[in-house]
Amino acid sequence: MTRPQQFANALVMQLPALRRYALALVGNAALADDLVQDCVERALRQSAQLRELPRISGWLRRILKNLYTDEIRRGNSRGEEQDITELADHVELSAPPTDVGAARDFVKAVSRLTPEHREILLLSSVEELNYREIAEELDIPVGTVMSRLARARERLRSVMQGEGAEIIPLPLGSKDRK
Hints:
Elements: H1 3-26, H2 29-45, H3 56-78, H4 84-87, H5 91-94, H6 100-111, H7 115-126, H8 131-138, H9 142-160
Helix pairs in contact: 1-2, 1-3, 2-3, 7-9, 8-9
């Protein structure tokens, strides 16, 4: 199998995890799909930059995160923000939880976290990366990963227990597709 075929196969295998990561970052399926599409387009254009195919998952997440960060910056310059709880997909509809209210409360609580805290929780809990892998992917020290993760968990716990805090809205907006 040629290198382009191997790359394409590896890329396709990463799509479910990449979409899950995008959905956790933006909180909306349509925007997550747009982000994944942009990520795949960029990955295909820059495929020669990936030296080791087994590292494709982290490489793709880094591309997606950079695209997301760019979108946040564009959104901040526009000054338009919307509360994720109004536009978020209902996670409770995709897998029937035993307590629908708890799932809804959890989604709302996660939306109150800073993007850095959401990202750390996602990489640790959903993607199951260890501290070192997270540190390498985000290009931050392991100690920073550990402290951010501890603060994210504590913040999530306090929001879930009703101690609440101001919602940090996710910037939403999608570029026009042709």
